[in-house]
Design goal:
The protein has 359 residues and is α+β, with helices and mostly antiparallel strands. It is built from eleven helices and eleven strands.
Length: 359
Amino acid sequence: MAVYTILDRGTLVGVAACHGLGKLAKAAGVPAGSVNTHYLLETSKGKFFLKIDEVKSAPEAQHELDLLLFLRSQGFPCPRPLADRQGHYFHDYGGKAVSVYPPLPGRTFSEAELTPAHLEQAGQMLGSLHVLAQSYKRIIDNRFSFERIVELYDWVSARVPGHFKQVIHTLDDEIEHQQQFQEDKLPKGIIHGDLFADNLLFRGGKLVGVLDFEAACSGKFIYDLATAVNALCYREGGYIFERFAALLQGYQQVRTLSLPEWDAFPNELRFSALRFTVTRLKDFFLRPMDNGMRVNKDFREFFARLQVLRRERPGGMDRLLLAMATGYDYRKYQKIRVQEKHNGRHRREEHAGKSKHLS
């Protein structure tokens, strides 16, 4: 969250009235965050968040709202868009989509505060999202696909200062590596794309909400899991195996990774680190803000991860790679295949019975 677009009180009062939120008592911009503008509205009916999409077009904003409404209908604890009195979920304000949400219960923890028990729940939640995502038939464009990141990197590399030679050399080499090893034939569906600690809400030790579907799109499930590993399992210069193990254990309680996904895991970690290095270079290093209206995110955090993943510096990769190399559980996979065959045979027998009855 951040404050880029300033709304006057009259506009905020109008939004509150349009959505039936009651009388507006207080409104304040929320400075923490990076991409979109948020306001906290306090009204006679409670507190609400107002969101202004700063990057997405109206159709893109509608795709995100449709996804949230679908997930809510399936019981997934994501933000709930509020319709106005005419049934509209967003309004246009100067070419930007404005939407309103009630706050979710719970609080966030910093990466340092998250325990293995928290991470296991995060893995379960991400696995649940991926299982649900397989029944969501709409395609959401991936703004952070490999091709888009290459285009963005070309723009970034032409503008960074000359003393970034070593950084650019590493990123050039990583782009070349990714061009050779990108694997597109992996399980796909709707992914969150940004499962960081500040997007997880806990209450009484239980994970009760997932925030920020700004980056949600159609993509590889293993990339989404790799991003969660990079975000939640890296501390003080290295990957913490116990955190990784807890996250993966939770995930596989809900969805078992396939052998091709295990094989692609190390490279997806690298691509995720590359993606956040490049986007943070563009959004925070090349476009700094001096007025304190947002929290800048240092690209070096993910560049350091990339160096560890490339084995250019120590950082706990050996245990992660060993876990990935031996993590494929043939017994679980075989159980899934046997169940699929059983279900298929049951459906064929049921169909044959109906056909016989009709004849």
